[in-house]
Recover the amino acids of this structure.
């Protein structure tokens, strides 16, 4: 006799769709799952620390407060930089005003060497407020530019070498001695010099005849090791008149008494000069054009003698080719072989760009100002194929390079973003970013007739989007991992400033899921304040550590008995635990003992299912799911009915083939030989390795006659869900009409 | 590949699948078998004994005793040194530092008004430093001890009263040395006015893995005396006491 | 060669203890002998090298200088060691045993002040313009197998007091030409050790100076000597 029932058989377990009329088969909430490349939803991720703490480690306090910062402060920014044409990978992070990178193996277990993992590059940096995005990192060739709009920009070479970036101060003017031709006739000592002097051309400067006046102006510039040239210094002048004395009828060499030394990174200095401008009533136009005289390939000489005559000067200089920049730029990108900088408090709508191949040289005319168009301040610059996207608070512009010139135009007059760290390029989708009302994607190009379009892609998670804090949206961080095949954006919820929930796009089937704790008390386990992907695609998480005393009050890493979670950089991996909890014991130095933290719950929750017709009643008998076998541990199913907030539990099931579960014929598992737990522990030399089976397991549920039904699967251990099937029956019973009288009040 | 992390979890009572025994250990083996990087090796742990000892260079043979030009080469694991030298104090028969090993008569000998190759002159034919560089940077110095002094003549100083005396001539004669790497001028000394002088010209050039030839060349000027057609000697000699180039090839 | 191999474990296979343990046993041995086969390219950075403040693995620098401002006079025709105004010799203590084929690099530089020139030409003898010269040299002292100290000269470099050349046309009159004051002097060279490792110990490198004619006095305001030992 067959069971008289209907079955709602679904081809696959869908992703999240929170629309009111979402298709059956989609989920209301999926958290902490991923899409397995061979199909289905799999929750087998955990967190392990980037630097394993071992059973315990001891630190000696070297700088007061450093432990509280490195073990307790939130990570404000994180960037993984692979230095071009080397094998070095730098993991740069900022905590509590320190900018540092970490090395994996410090090679010493001595307590006072505890901070050898951290190579500190800068300290006392500005800590971003809750509406600030924080430090941006812009790679250019084999250098990295680190800017935050407040501190001086850092040009990082690798190892511990860094220097200031570009030219923030005007170039100093050289000091030149005056020329006193009178000395040659034996006059009194004044301030200048009459040596060296020459009689015959081509050596020396100036006109020789008595009464001739000569007038020159000099400017210098510095050349850095990136090839960039500084702005020219202010001009300095030297002039003289030949007296009526044949002894003084000479041409002179100009003596630089003090040639300024350039800042760190200067490899050469250039000297420019006008030709003889000749004051007085004599011939030749005054053109004021500066010509290149000499390049000194050093940054140490302080004296120089110029004896090169005007006829040897042939290369005029463009005085607008380099200008001083300021430190207030907050955002940047490398595009078209140039470095682009934009935004910042003092010029929020200005973008400047460097010369091609010369990342530190910005010409006077190399800028855009987007302030004429409505759209707010600039919030990011992003290189996208052959365009540079300019994100603003409420619009998006694009800069293109055509026929040797740059042009800027607007692609979206209404959609913009303040979540600069949420912007990622995702293959097959485009540039995804978070705005106040959801996630948008920019797709397409501008060549060959295609068009750039900006479309909203977060409709399936509209309820989740409603939880995102718009005041602190700048704190949203994101990462795209090619290994995990997902884009994950983590953001703070309304009323909080620390990101604790995340939304994930799985690129294998463009579905959405979420990442968060099951209950608000545990949301501290998801406080990820920075994210980046390393070259292998592992997702590295910067966290806001939580230190508490055993009684639950908040504490610091240097307090005795304090317990810290999510301390240090963490990695999203196949770990069977959720990071370590460190317990501090203060004595001679501080000893931290570590203990693994249990995994949080992973839940697949279906939407409300009305079986296609919510005008009749249904009775649900069972939920059976198609999963991959995983062993003898328990998976729970809860179910609910008719929009009731109560969850009812069905008895646990194991993800193993039901007929052979707990028999000696079942697939071998890890574990002790304990018949109370399993009859088939894996025995070396006897047990065969079995691949996972595709199995169906069933939970029986006892609903009454209901309009809507939902269920959720819960597990902290791996669960690989492919599809589900509901066995139900429908009764031909229509819902009651409402007993309401329009005029006489409600019935008792 | 830098640090490796757990690929899949293993829990108690979990089914033992092939991936349970393969996936995690495979990842660690892939890292161990040839892709360990700076994050895996301990900081401040590489000491002197971890490097290869120096050895004779393969691309520059040390010259034997008694040759006109002295050359040496040494290879290390991070750098290589090469040297060429001809000095009156050493090669081939020692005279002393006061005696030049090359004298060029600017009135009678063949020389060029542009840069002069030393190989054109007696016993300097093998002077250029030729070796196989490895990609990286060349940093070196050319040190040349030379003299181009002023000439001294008996001249008439005044007619009335008649007075003659010795005067130096040629204060404006300058010389300049340049360092050439594969025939490209990479460093020059600037003008050096008459004297005996040891000029040191440091130079640095990036280099690929290629054959490199480094040599030094000089420019000099002189002038004929005006007036007297009977004088045969008007220039002063250009003397070289020693010339040396050493270079360090820093391997990238 | 510490590459550890592992056979993939396949479905339906019954792995034995030996098969399962092999990779871990091999790793236990191989991890104690990690060499270049295990490392990726370009893994070494300066952070991995031993702290240069205590031990310089690649090159080691030795340095000695006299920075003036008081000038020191020299007029010996035999090379004598250069000193500070208080008599401290400008020398560096090397005190190491070079390896066979190892290179030692030597640099010297300084500033001549106002020398006193009386003779710049030899009118009587055969040495013609040589009295115009002064010269520097770097002497390296060493001992072989613990024996007595010996020395060799790494290089000689000369300068002139006046602008006049070695051979002059006028060979009868009194000297002419002002002295060249405030002249810098500088030179560098390298020395390769061709003997056996452990036999020779370099002791010192010393900067020395001499004049050709002792009626001229050289006045030196400052000098410096550097030695760089190229180790690896």
């Amino acid at each position: 006799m067959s069971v008289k029932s209907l079955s709602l058989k679904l081809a696959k377990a869908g992703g999240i769709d929170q629309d009111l009329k979402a298709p059956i088969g989609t989920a209301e909430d999926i958290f902490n799952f991923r899409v397995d490349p061979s199909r289905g939803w799999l929750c087998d991720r955990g967190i392990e620390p980037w630097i394993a703490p071992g059973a315990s480690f001891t630190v000696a306090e070297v700088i007061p407060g450093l432990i509280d910062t490195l073990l307790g402060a939130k990570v404000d920014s994180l960037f993984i930089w692979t230095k071009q044409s080397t094998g070095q990978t730098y993991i740069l992070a900022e905590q509590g005003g320190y900018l540092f990178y970490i090395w994996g193996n410090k090679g010493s277990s001595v307590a006072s060497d505890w901070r050898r993992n951290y190579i500190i590059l800068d300290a006392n940096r500005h800590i971003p407020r809750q509406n600030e995005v924080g430090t941006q990192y812009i790679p250019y060739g084999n250098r990295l530019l680190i800017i935050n709009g407040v501190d001086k920009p850092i040009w990082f070479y690798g190892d511990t070498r860094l220097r200031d970036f570009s030219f923030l101060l005007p170039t100093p003017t050289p000091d030149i001695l005056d020329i006193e031709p009178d000395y040659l006739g034996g006059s009194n000592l004044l301030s200048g010099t009459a040596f060296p002097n020459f009689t015959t051309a081509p050596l020396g400067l100036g006109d020789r005849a008595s009464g001739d006046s000569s007038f020159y102006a000099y400017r210098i510039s510095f050349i850095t090791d990136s090839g960039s040239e500084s702005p020219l210094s202010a001009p300095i002048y030297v002039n003289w008149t030949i007296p009526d004395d044949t002894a003084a009828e000479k041409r002179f060499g100009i003596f630089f008494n003090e040639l300024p030394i350039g800042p760190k990174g200067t490899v050469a200095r250039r000297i420019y000069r006008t030709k003889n401008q000749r004051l007085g009533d004599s011939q030749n136009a005054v053109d004021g054009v500066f010509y290149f005289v000499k390049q000194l390939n050093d940054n140490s000489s302080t004296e120089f003698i110029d004896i090169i005559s005007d006829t040897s000067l042939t290369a005029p200089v463009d005085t607008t080719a380099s200008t001083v920049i300021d430190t207030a730029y907050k955002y940047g990108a490398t595009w078209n072989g140039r470095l682009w900088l934009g935004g910042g408090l003092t010029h929020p709508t200005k973008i400047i760009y460097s010369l091609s191949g010369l990342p530190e040289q910005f010409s006077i005319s190399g800028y855009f100002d987007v302030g004429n168009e409505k759209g707010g301040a600039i919030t990011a610059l992003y290189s996208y194929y052959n365009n540079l996207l300019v994100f603003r608070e409420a619009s998006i512009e694009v800069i293109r390079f055509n026929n040797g010139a740059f042009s800027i135009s607007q692609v979206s007059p209404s959609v913009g973003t303040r979540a600069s760290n949420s912007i990622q390029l995702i293959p097959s989708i485009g540039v995804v970013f978070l705005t106040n009302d959801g996630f948008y994607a920019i797709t397409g190009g501008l060549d060959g007739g295609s068009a750039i379009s900006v479309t909203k892609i977060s409709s399936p998670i509209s309820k989740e989007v409603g939880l995102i804090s718009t005041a602190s949206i700048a704190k949203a961080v994101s990462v795209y991992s090619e290994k995990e095949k997902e884009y994950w954006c983590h953001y703070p919820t309304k009323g909080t400033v620390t990101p604790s929930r995340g939304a994930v796009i799985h690129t294998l089937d463009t579905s959405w899921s979420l990442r968060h704790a099951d209950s608000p008390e545990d949301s501290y386990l998801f406080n990820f304040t920075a994210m980046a992907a390393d070259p292998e695609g592992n997702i590295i998480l910067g966290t806001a550590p939580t230190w508490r005393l055993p009684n639950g009050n908040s504490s610091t890493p240097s307090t005795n008995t304090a317990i810290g979670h999510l301390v240090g950089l963490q990695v999203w991996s196949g770990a069977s635990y959720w990071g370590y909890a460190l317990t501090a014991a203060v004595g001679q130095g501080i000893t931290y003992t570590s203990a693994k933290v249990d995994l949080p719950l992973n839940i697949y929750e279906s939407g409300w299912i009305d079986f296609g017709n919510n005008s009749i009643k249904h009775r649900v008998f069972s939920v059976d799911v198609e999963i991959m076998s995983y062993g003898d541990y328990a998976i729970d199913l809860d179910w609910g009915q008719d929009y009731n907030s109560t969850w009812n539990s069905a008895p646990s099931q194991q993800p193993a083939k039901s007929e052979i579960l707990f028999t000696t014929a079942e697939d071998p598992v890890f574990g002790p030989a304990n018949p109370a737990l399993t009859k088939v522990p894996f025995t070396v030399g006897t047990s065969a390795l079995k691949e996972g089976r595709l199995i169906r397991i069933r939970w029986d549920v006892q609903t009454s006659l209901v309009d809507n039904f939902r269920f959720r699967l819960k597990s902290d251990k791996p669960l690989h869900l492919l599809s589900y099937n509901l066995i139900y029956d429908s009764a031909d019973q229509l819902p009651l009409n409402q007993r309401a009288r329009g005029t006489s009040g409600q019935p008792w | 590949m830098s640090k490796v992390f757990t690929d899949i979890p293993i829990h108690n009572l979990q089914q033992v699948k092939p991936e349970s025994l393969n996936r995690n250990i495979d990842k660690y083996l892939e890292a161990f078998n040839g892709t360990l990087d700076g994050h895996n090796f301990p900081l401040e742990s590489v000491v002197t004994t971890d490097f290869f000892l120096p050895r004779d260079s393969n691309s520059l043979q040390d010259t034997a005793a008694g040759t006109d030009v002295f050359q040496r080469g040494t290879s290390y694991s991070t750098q290589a040194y090469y040297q060429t030298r001809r000095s009156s104090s050493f090669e081939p028969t020692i005279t002393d530092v006061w005696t030049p090993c090359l004298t060029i008569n600017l009135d009678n000998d063949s020389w060029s008004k542009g840069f002069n190759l030393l190989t054109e002159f007696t016993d300097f034919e093998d002077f250029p430093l030729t070796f196989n560089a490895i990609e990286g940077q060349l940093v070196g110095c050319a040190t040349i001890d030379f003299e181009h002094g002023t000439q001294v003549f008996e001249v008439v100083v005044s007619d009335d009263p008649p007075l003659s005396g010795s005067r130096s001539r040629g204060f404006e004669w300058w010389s300049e040395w340049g360092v050439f790497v594969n025939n490209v001028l990479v460093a020059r000394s600037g003008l050096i006015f008459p004297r005996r002088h040891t000029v040191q010209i440091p130079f640095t050039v990036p280099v690929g893995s290629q054959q490199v030839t480094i040599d030094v060349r000089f420019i000099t000027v002189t002038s004929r005396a005006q007036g007297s057609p009977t004088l045969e000697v008007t220039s002063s000699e250009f003397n070289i006491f020693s010339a040396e180039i050493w270079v360090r090839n820093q391997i990238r | 060669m510490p590459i550890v191999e592992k056979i993939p474990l396949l479905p339906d296979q019954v792995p034995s203890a030996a098969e399962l343990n092999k990779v871990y046993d091999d790793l236990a041995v191989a991890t104690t002998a990690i060499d270049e086969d295990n490392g990726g390219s370009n893994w070494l950075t300066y952070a991995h090298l031993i702290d240069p403040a205590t031990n310089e693995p690649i090159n080691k620098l030795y340095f000695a200088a006299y920075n003036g401002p008081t000038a020191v006079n020299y007029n010996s025709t035999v090379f004598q060691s250069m000193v500070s105004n208080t008599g401290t010799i400008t020398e560096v203590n090397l005190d190491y045993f070079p390896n066979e084929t190892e290179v030692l690099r030597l640099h010297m530089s300084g500033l001549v002040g106002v020398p006193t020139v009386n003779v710049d030409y030899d009118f009587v003898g055969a040495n013609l313009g040589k009295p115009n010269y002064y010269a520097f040299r770097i002497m390296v002292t060493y001992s072989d197998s613990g024996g007595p100290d010996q020395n060799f000269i790494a290089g000689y470099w000369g300068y002139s007091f006046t602008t006049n050349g070695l051979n002059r046309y006028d060979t009868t009159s009194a000297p002419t030409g002002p002295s060249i004051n405030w002249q810098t002097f500088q030179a560098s060279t390298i020395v390769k050790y061709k003997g056996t490792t452990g036999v020779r110990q370099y002791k010192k490198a010393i900067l020395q100076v001499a004049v050709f004619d002792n009626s001229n006095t050289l006045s030196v305001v400052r000098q410096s000597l550097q030695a760089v030992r190229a180790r690896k």
About this structure: Chain B has one helix and 14 strands.
